[in-house]
Amino acid sequence: MIEQNFEPKIVAFCCNWCSYAGADLAGTGRLKYPENVRIIRVPCSSRVEVQMIMRAFQNGADGVMVAGCHPGDCHYDTGNYHTRRRMMLLQSLTSFLGMDPDRFIVKWISGNEAAKFKSTVEEFNETLKKLGPADKVRDQRCGI
Amino acid sequence: MRVGVFICWCGSNIKNMVDVEKVAKEAEKMPRVVYSQDVQYLCSEVGQADISKAIDEHKLDRIVIGACSPRMHESTFQQLLESKGLNPYYVEIANIREQCSWVHTDKDKATVKATELVKKAVAKSYHAIPLTSDLLKVNKKALVIGGGIAGIQAALDIADAGYPVDLVEQKPSIGGRMAQFDKTFPTLDCSACILTPKMVEAATHENITLYTYSEVENVAGYVGNFKVKIKQKAKSVKQDICNGCGDCMEKCPKKVANEFDEGNSKRKAIYTLFPQAVPNKPVIDRDNCIYYKTGKCGLCEKICPTKAIDYNQEDEIVENEYGAIIAATGFDIKDPQDLSEYYYGNHPDVITSLELERQLNASGPTSGKVIRPSNGKTPEKIVFVQCVGSRDRNKGNAYCSKVCCLYTAKHTLLLNEKFPETESYVFNIDVRTGGKGYEEFYERARHKGAKYLRGQVSKVEPLGDADNKLLVRGYDSSIGEQVEIEADLVVLATSIEPKVGSSKIAGLLGLSSDSDGFFSEAHPKLKPVETQAQGIYLAGVCQGPKDIPEAVSQASGASAKAIILFNKGEVKSVPTTAMVNEEICSGCMQCKPVCPYEAISREYVTERVAGKEVKRPVASINRALCQGCGACAGLCRSGAMDIGGFTSKQIMAEVDTL
């Protein structure tokens, strides 16, 4: 049963140089998006470990996003290529776990794509609202 | 551990959407927080003094700031901590402005979110570890990429400060776009008269080495210590022997379109770019030379009095080391053929502004006469079309090319001066004249008779009469009517675009580009010449459309940044580098191939196991090379690899506050 007025929790791992800057630019441009996203700043999307994503799901996240620079535009030359490979693997693992693969997304958002940041969060939020709370790997001791 | 929390109002920027007092109160309840306060402006001197006082009074050793983005003021607070004797990495910032108050509309929800962001930052601060940076020596030599006016100015400034500079230009001569211009606005100075002395100065300066007909092939290293490979294309003329007499160019039988005149004249296969080229010695264009195609000819070799022709010369790769790099790669002009309504390419009398500029130039294809390319006669009615490919997302570029309004005013004035009988009509969206003396200049153009029609041209088509005239249809919004003008010549003010190939340079230098392809500066307001890559600076139109004075000032700004770096002589290395926990590391070296800086190598540690000494492999980080991306840490299976400032513990602590 999907509860009424369900507000999903979103954790977004954003690379400092592109997506985090894009989120900042969304702020500077006063673009509006849902409150339920929590951004965690990382130097590069390739810094994100798989266990960080799983831990977020365990702790009550309904959706996790990893966002980095566009392929070819990585501040560190090649970081996002590693991200792409690693996260593709994780994507298939989430379905293996029985989780809806739509709960975990990888996006390329550059420092000037404020509008893309906004629309990505909005769309993700809508998807998660339809999917309802994620309790497959949630640690029930969290009390959520 | 004693954590202090400071919540900034940012005037009304945060306070209007977030209940800052409430956030500060909530923060007090968080574990290990011993002090919490809200402050009007944390970045101000008063705000800083408040933090400083609280550190003393409450013996704080971790500071959490709830304010604007860490990309904005992290270093401000780090410096404050350093001055208080605390490690600068003991400060943690919760971004409650850009990522909260500015993007949300519900005050209650925004306050809850701000509190959670502060909680996240507090949790991260528990695991902060002190970080230090090393001092790295700076190689006091600069590389300037691009020999246009911006590149020349940057090179001259650095050279005048006493540091050696290498100036790389892909064409056979420096000078760039400005060398093509006839006059400059708003003073109508002769472009060559003010540019060529600078070109000569750059060529003869003892601290400047010119690499013309050369390209940057590879860039490695980091601020203060770049290693750059430059490819010098074979000129096929021994530059040290050639005396520049020009006999070879006269005798060469092969004629090709002259790119310097926008294809409106011919040059030889052995050529100098223009008469005042620097260096003024010819090169052989191998793509067009008969000798390279058929093995026959060799006329230039026969005629050369100093035996300077060398058909077997090869491309040469030189490898140099630099402390700073300035990118000044310039621009290209949009090809208006994509915009079929202007009929460009289908009628010889539709030309671009740059082609008109070359016509006006005394050393151009028409020796300074303005003609209709179709019949060589002086045009009587000229229609100028503004914003061709600019300011229209659907037909080219969304941005304004910035200089077209002024150079078109210049063209009408020059035409009026040289050919008073010509009539000039200017179709424009609106006229933009930001700049000293620019509005007056535009007024002068109107006063002298240029007719400005506010509206856009919908179609240019041949009239089909004996004179081969053009019919320009457009809309004049000031009278609210469609207008038709029978023109002899149509001049298109085509959009400025990033230089073809600049994305390759961006890739080599690790620069990011904006959505239009211009290089991105580090901060649009406060760091307009720096880039996100330390030690690499920007000058000129490669960063965005600008006129000559702006390009020159940016070049001087960029060179000042390089000079500051050289004067210091040392740079601080990135403190947030990778760290290896040797006790856990198994030496699998999976991290080595993912490192983009080749900063990881295999080392051996000696241990005593069961009474015996054994050597065990572990990964080791070269801290001077590491930039702290974390690709290695993201992949390490044993969790032995970590990134200072972004350790697994820190990020996990953030995740755990959900």
From TrEMBL, chain A:
Q: GO molecular function terms here?
A: iron-sulfur cluster binding; metal ion binding; oxidoreductase activity
Tell me which residues make up the F420-non-reducing hydrogenase iron-sulfur subunit D domain: 10-132
Keywords assigned: Iron, Iron-sulfur, Metal-binding, Oxidoreductase
The organism's superkingdom is given as Bacteria
What name is this protein filed under?
A: Hydrogenase iron-sulfur subunit
Per the UniProt record, the source organism is Proteinivorax hydrogeniformans
Automatic annotation (TrEMBL), chain B:
Keyword Isomerase present in the record's keywords: the answer is: no
User: Gene3D superfamilies, per this entry?
Assistant: 3.30.70.20, FAD/NAD(P)-binding domain
Q: Which UniProt keywords apply?
A: 4Fe-4S, FAD, Flavoprotein, Iron, Iron-sulfur, Metal-binding, Oxidoreductase
Molecular function terms from GO: 4 iron, 4 sulfur cluster binding; metal ion binding; oxidoreductase activity
Domain spans labelled 4Fe-4S ferredoxin-type? 233-263, 280-314, 576-605, 617-646
Give the protein family.
Answer: Belongs to the HdrA family.
UniProt cross-references to InterPro entries, sorted A to Z: 4Fe4S_Fe-S-bd, 4Fe4S_Fe_S_CS, FAD/NAD-bd_sf, HdrA-like
Cofactor dependence: FAD
Q: What is this protein called?
A: CoB--CoM heterodisulfide reductase iron-sulfur subunit A family protein
